[in-house]
Design goal:
The structure holds 2 protein chains of 2 kinds.
Chain A (H helix, E strand, L loop, with lengths): L2 E4 L3 E5 L4 E3 L1 E4 L5 E7 L6 E6 L5 E4 L2 E4 L9 E3 L8 E8 L7 E3 L3 E6 L1
Parallel strand pairs in A: 2-12
Antiparallel strand pairs in A: 1-4, 3-9, 5-6, 5-10, 7-8, 8-9, 10-11, 10-12
Chain B lengths: L2 E5 L2 E4 L5 E8 L5 E7 L5 E9 L2 E4 L6 E6 L2 E6 L8 E8 L8 E2 L3 E5 L1
Classes of the chains: A mainly beta, B mainly beta.
Chain lengths: 113, 113
Amino acid sequence: GDSVTQTEGQVALSEEDFLTIHCNYSASGYPALFWYVQYPGEGPQFLFRASRDKEKGSSRGFEATYDKGTTSFHLRKASVQESDSAVYYCALGDNTGNYKYVFGAGTRLKVIA
Amino acid sequence: AQTIHQWPVAEIKAVGSPLSLGCTIKGKSSPNLYWYWQATGGTLQQLFYSITVGQVESVVQLNLSASRPKDDQFILSTEKLLLSHSGFYLCAWSLSSNTGQLYFGEGSKLTVL
């Protein structure tokens, strides 16, 4: 079945550091890829989406590029702030008509001021 | 603007007791609806989805059931709770495309004792 792997379980950075969270996927066909952010006690919030090779998604200073060759969708941000502290989830949407979305394990980001 | 409301916000229930969680979406006609479960500190596991009133598809078996009695309402239930049912239950909706972004509710926290 489809799967999403996030390499980092936790990331600790200082403000203005560069962020990379790695996301790799395994899916048949050509899935849509997403990044979501979740704050404590809340539901996940959509960050952005990409649906074709080399497409870049971005929002709030975060960005990721769909790479079909390496089956990756790594999240990056040039300069993190304390307010970015949250859990980040990479996800894929199966576009074969079965309305299934698979989420990665999540990466907890802590940014220290 | 679309809104999604989940109820109750939190429940503490005994093993073997029944459960009903609800979700209402306002401002969007004929959305796709989803139930997700999240263990504390864990990833999001899709449980059910529904693309039309009266039709619900199960994605994973967890001794839970779901129903969609109205276009804007999605219900998750079980007659007998297990300890393993504890966690955070999230309702979500998306547009009719099967790879559209998910919009999550605020969630319902369930503790089974």
